[in-house]
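One-letter codes give the sequence; backbone shape is given numerically. An example follows:

. . .
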Amino acid sequence: MTTLALCPERAEPAQRIAGLAAEAMYREVTLTPKPGLVDRVSNGAHRDMDIRLFMASIRAISPWFAHFYAQGEASAGLPAPQTLWAIRPVGLACEQAMFDATGGINTHKGAIFSLGLLCAAAGRLANRTQRLTRQRLCRETSAICAGLVERELRSRTVAKTKGEQIFLTSGLSGARGEAESGFATVRRFGLPQWESALRQGLSQQEALLKMLLALMATNPDTNVVSRSGLKGLGYVQRYARRMLNCPSLSGEKLALALSNMDRALTRKNISPGGSADLLAVGWLLAHYPA
C-alpha cells in the first residue's frame, strides 16, 4: 500500500485524525478490565480472539484511515450522502486487510465503519477550511449517513444479515443508526461521563472505564442482542447502571467490580462489542474541542 501524497496544508489534520483513529483502537483493546471483551488479561466471551489478534488487526487497518480522509476531502463538493459511496471501496479494502491479518475473523468491522466515517467527515470539513470540532465531525457524519437506516434496514422485508434480522424483530438499528444520529449515544452519555470522571481527579484509564460503563448502560448494543437477545441487553444495561450509581467506585474497587462483571458476562456469553466500538469513537472525539 502506498502512502498518500497529501497537500502540505491538508497533511496536519489528515495525519492527526488518522493517527487518533488508530490509537483509539489500541486504547480500546488495551483498556483492562473490560466486561465480556478482549483486553490485556482476558478474552472475555470470545473463544476465537485474543489481544495478539487484535494488535495484528490494528496494524493492518491503521494505514487505511488516511484513505478515508482523502476520499472525504475529494468528495467535499458533492452532497454529503454521496461520500458514503465514495468511501465504500476503501472500507471494503480495509476490511479485507483486516481479514487477511486475522485469518478471516471479524475483530474491527464496526470500528472500521465508525472511525472511517469520522475520518471521511474530517476530510470534507478540512476541504471547506472548517475547524474540526466534535460537533462538526458528528454533524458531518450524520449528513453522510442520511437515509442509511431507511435504505439498508427499514426498506428490507427479508433479513439477509444478523443486523437486518435484529432490526426487523426489535427495531434496533445498531452501528448504522448510531452513525446516522451523529453518534448521539457517545455525545449524550459517553463523553459527559468521561469529562465528569476527569473532573473528579480520576486517571484517564479510569475515565475510559467509566465512559465504557455509561455506553453499556445506554447503548442498544446489537452485538449483545445477537448473542443473548433483548433479555441479555437489559441485563447488561441494568448491571452497568448499578455500577455507575456507586459514586465512590474507583481505583482497585472499580477494577474488582469490572472483573466481577467480566466473569458474569463471560458466563452468559455476552460481548458488548458495539459499546467497545463507541468507546473508540468517544476517545477520538475527546481530542477535539466541543
